[in-house]
Specification:
heterodimer; A: 288 residues; alpha/beta; eight-stranded mixed β-sheet; 8 strands; globular; B: 577 residues; six-stranded mixed β-sheet; 18 helices
Chain lengths: 288, 577
Amino acid sequence: MATFKDFRNKVKPNWCPGCGDFSIQAAIQRASANVGLEPEDLAVVSGIGCSGRVSGYINAYGFHGIHGRALPIAQGLKMANRELTVVASGGDGDGFAIGMGHTIHAIRRNINITYIVMDNQIYGLTKGQTSPRSAFGFKTKSTPAGSIESALSPLEMALAAGASFVAQSFSSNLKQLTGLIEEGMKHEGFSFINVFSPCVTFNKINTYDWFKENIVDLDESSDYDPSNRVMAMSKIMETNSLACGLLYRDQARPSYENQVAGFRGEGLAKQDLNLSEDDFNKLVAEFR
Amino acid sequence: MISQLSWKIGGQQGEGLESTDRIFSNALNREGYYLYGYRHFSSRIKGGHTNNKIRISTKPIRAISDDLDILVAFDQETIDLNAYELRKGGVVIADAKFNPELPEGIDARLFDVPFTAIAEELGTSLMKNMVATGASAAVLGIDVGIVQKVVEEEFSRKGAAVVEKNCQAVARGAQYILDTSEISLDGFKLEPGDGEGRLFVIGNDAIGLGALTAGCRFMPAYPITPASEIMEYLIKRLPNYGGTVIQTEDEIAAVTMAIGANYGGVRALTASAGPGLSLMMEAIGLSGMTETPVVVVDTQRGGPSTGLPTKQEQSDLNAMIYGTHGEIPKIVLAPSTVEECFYDAVEAFNLAEKYQCPVILLIDLQLALGKQTAENLDFNRVKIDRGYLVNNPEPAEEGQLFKRYAVTEDGVSPRVLPGTKNGLHHVTGVEHDEEGRPSENAKNRKNMMDKRLRKLNNIQVTDPIKADAPHDEADLLVVSMNSLGGTIDEARGRLEKDGIKSNHMTIRLVHPFPTALVKEQMDKAKKVVVVENNATGQLRDQIKLHVGQAEKLGSLLKYDGNPFLPAEVYNHCKGLM
């Protein structure tokens, strides 16, 4: 049995000291071991940005794609081999700006992968521009007078798009985050996990202290029911999208793969490619 | 009795012309005629003039004809727009309902047939197209029973009553022609077909079958004219083989999903037209950089931008060769017949895995959608070659990963699929080392660029060009790609009668360019003319770039949305002599 150490490799991340992404990487490694994966059973697909590098820092199959397209790559991979555990990951720019179209449709489609957004509310790697998650009035290099666009609420968006699993956490809360990623991996469908991951270099507003003060932890509330979609939406709106924990999970909804006619349990990649001559002749006869 | 003629049916889009054309041509196909279809349609669902033209012959043909023998018209607009095309003595068979008239100066005959009235007598005017089908069969001397058999298959899902009514409509249409003595159409009787019942297929379906036969089991795609038939073909058949089609949110998702699936080890393709291909270019670069195989079909239509979505053009060539930033190995394969659409789809998958790079299967609208008679497809020619795929790698040395990008002599590195023990490695669009880890090291960068680019130095492709070159010293070499071959061959037949010796070369591998083979053909001719459906001579420019000989290179270009006619090619070539 692999332990979380087996998911470590020798690459030193190029993230700034104190970056929230370190803990998210650790949580993915711990969750992978906790659900009983071996490194070759896991594939991490990531986008572009600081967070996108995560696929290279985990000892597993890793695919570092192009900006905003981690989700379609990950979905294609899962369709090719449904026996793999596929984690897609990227930043808030990757998932909510350039890749927003894919995010909404991946949520709707409900292919069984886990999507972890490393949300720092700013563009870090390009050195400090506004993100769709930046608050109204937030000053950045690209919004020197303060952002005049409203910030996106990823949780409301995910619920509205028909998500079957919505969670949010904070990179400092490694225990909660690890647990949510495990639940996401086990969930038969698309799991959306937004994680506050402070950018210590460019975001001086949404800092570790700011999150500690403002987050509402659902683990501390005994009467919250994550199977209730209306309650989930109310909680998200009540807390101004700062609720952390498992917000919503629909365990009855089948995954995309389980609804595809003729789709088999073993990965497509493992199946025989050859068509029998008999089948071929029947297909050709359709053209007569 | 005649050996070939052209028949066209026209009316408003949404009037059932498609099914009329389908039923009539399927009946003719079963009678053993060679057919070549052309669809004139617009980018709208209902309304607007549309027409379908079929060339019918007792001998092989692969081109539309210069003129028209029979025009079946459901409205006056059809006559007004198409009568000019009729040959002297041609005939218009029109619905009596709209009191049809021939425009002035047209030397043709007009016969009114009460299509709508007969259909209404049988219950609904919707069946007027079946009345027209029966009438058409009678004019050509085709047995109505053959048509009725196809009608039965077409409508069987709708129940016996519908089949019966439609069969009656066919019979009544035919009877009207036979009973009406003033309609003397003996000159249009076709010699009997040979009853062979050959394949009758569009290029898009042939590509779909090729993909399926090549082991493709997944297709993510976004609908677009004229590519959608490929996804529609596969969604009907893939579930029988464990596979599926996903209709994605856009073309970027389609191509990246296909790349993800190929990385995962399943053969996957996507298909689109110019606008979609433009969106896919960044991802095609990712495929090149990460050496992940992917097959992308581009069914060219009129560009730029939305351009002419339903019209013939060949203007994506440069974009397919040069599109994507940076420099990657890429293969662009351009089949020129429906049979090649099938074989080349198979080869495209083999090449993509053998050279671990993107393969563009480039066709044009006329090849994608023009339904035509095809030779039988040979199952024994299909070989699946998955390239340098490692199933059980040895454990890597301590602290190292599998060398997915090992620098090799031919540039091709061992590929291992996710899920394989001892195969862990990294994949990234960032420049990387042999294990796939990001690296900006200058020496590594050069090694990796050279390794990727040399993969295609000795590319092995069946028939990079196809030459029909009977003359060692030809007056003229005609060069083309995709669907133009049949038209050019007809023009060459006429040139031959005038004593002009011509050869023809189709370029199948347009990138990397088969310079030596092209030069060999050019050396045999005094003059060269490149015939292509674009405004700037993109194929000619490739020849000029790679082979040179600019002084003897000429161009015949057409970019008004319509395919070339044999006479246009003939007249141009004749003028060069």
